[in-house]
Amino acid sequence: MPAIPASRYPGAMITFRKAQVSDLPAIVAMLADDPLGAAREDASLPLAQGYVDAFDAIDADPNQLLAVAVDGGEVIGTLQITFLAGLSRKGAWRGQIEAVRVAGHRRSGGIGRLMLEWAIDQCRARGCGVVQLTTDKGRADAHRFYENLGFTGSHIGYKKSL
Asked: Helix 140-148 to helix 111-125 angle, to the nearest 10 degrees?
């Protein structure tokens, strides 16, 4: 994957860039800062080694992009894009967006929209023919948010914890 330069999004003071290991505490804190994440994440410091190991694996994989939104020196948002090769749709690549989070004190200010627009631009730049995401059934606000961005609830997703 080509390097993703830090860039400011037009009309915003938010900078989007590839996450660095020093961003990890802020990322995990955002993952833990909602009812679902609170039950499955642990943002206490020092972070569990599993987070560091996962970060290292993501960072080393050219088909993964863990990104952060930064305002000044503060990490205020995060998301992960996985670029998937596939045979369907005539061999089109897909961009799978996951773990979209905005810091609690910055929600409802348009940052999520900017993050998703930026992520879609990254997928387009990688030649993806489809951008997809999943969201928990219980996140009605997230469903409306994604639909307002042009996503459609066209599929049913299944997961199995191992």
From this structure: 60
The alpha carbon of 76 is separated from its chain's Cα centroid by a whole number of angstroms, namely 12
Q: Are strands 93-102 and 128-133 parallel, antiparallel or unpaired?
A: parallel
Question: Are residues 123 and 85 in contact, defined by beta-carbon separation less than 8 angstroms?
Answer: no
Look up the pTM and report it. Answer: 0.86
3-class secondary structure, 113 = helix
> Count of residues for the chain?
162
* Tokens 């802020």 -> residue: 26
Q: In the chain, where are the structural domains located?
A: 7-148
7-148: what fold? Answer: Aminopeptidase (3.40.630)
Give the list of residues 6+ apart from residue 13 with CB closer than 8 angstroms, or none.
Answer: 71
Q: What is the pLDDT of residues 41-89, one digit of tens each?
A: 989 999 999 999 999 999 999 999 999 999 988 999 999 999 999 999 9
Q: 116 CB contacts (<8 Å, ≥6 apart)?
A: 79, 97, 100, 146, 149
Q: How far is CA 134 from CA 69, 71, 88, 137, 159, in A?
A: 20, 26, 19, 9, 11
Residue 1: what pLDDT?
40
